[in-house]
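User: Hey, quick favor. My workstation is busy. Could you predict this chain's structure for me?
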Amino acid sequence: MDFRSDNVTGVCPEILAAIIAANSGSAAAYGEDDWTVRTQSAFADLFERDVTVFPVATGTAANALSLASLAPVYGAIYAHEAAHITVDECNAPEFYTGGAKVVPVPGTDGKIVASDLAQRLAGATPHGHHNAQPAAVSLSQATEVGTVYDLDELRAISSVCRDHGVALHVDGARIANAVVHLGCSFADATWRAGVDVLSFGATKNGAMAAEAVTFFDPGLAARMPFMRKRAGHLLSKMRFLSAQLEAYIRDDVWRRNAHHANAAARRLVDGIEGLPGVALRHPLQANEIFVQLPQATIDGLAGDGFLFHPWGDPADNVVRLVMGFSTPMADVDRFVRRARALSG
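Assistant: No problem, here it is.
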């Protein structure tokens, strides 16, 4: 009964079958294979336009290489203070950009607000060439606390970026969960809202290890082939990575998986809301739950074998629960029943 992360899940059957199918015979190396060619086409269908796609193996690589394509060594990248690139990637964006600075921006519920961003960008270079120069804004979608930028919020932030001449990147490790919540297309949630580059995530939603740096402006992708190679993410047997992405996109596997994870999270929250001492810390909009529970409830659930992470200040009694594409609904129901009994 493991609710620690959507990274604890296995590989979904459709993707595992695609990997096995790709294991037959030989194929050209370094992305010259048929699977990678078809994946480019699959992404074009998904986003309703031609896009330039670079499969990579990890989300950290996708983010760092995306930002390295946008920011010069003297640049500044603005991201929420709790964003993955800010606190959880061991300075990978700074490393791969060659020295660009990640600038943390505060905001409630894991989100940057357009008006606050505009104010920051307007005052970013009071000393001209003595300051890091604004180059990019990076948003997490869904955010690190499970909230989702709606389309109006995305458009407003994109407008601020255009006004100040900076690019807009989205860390889409959980982009499928966000799109399912929004009820829109991938096109609406990305380039139509002004996004320039997307770190398209699949690993958390059923892949073995597959992400894709996705450019909506091919002019921004000129350096990417060389940066990916230098970073060690041009896989020689690329077909096995691309096969995952192709299977994930075709037949709406991404949608089914994300819908299940989001629905499991909603089912759990609906089951425990209103119990004494239970309070959500952030709105539930995707597949991550941050909830305050009585200490006795936390201890009892842990003693029964439920796995989850404490979050923030231990005195706050907040835990994080994450639902995955394969989270059994029976486990969710067990959690609810036990939480209700412990509150009893």
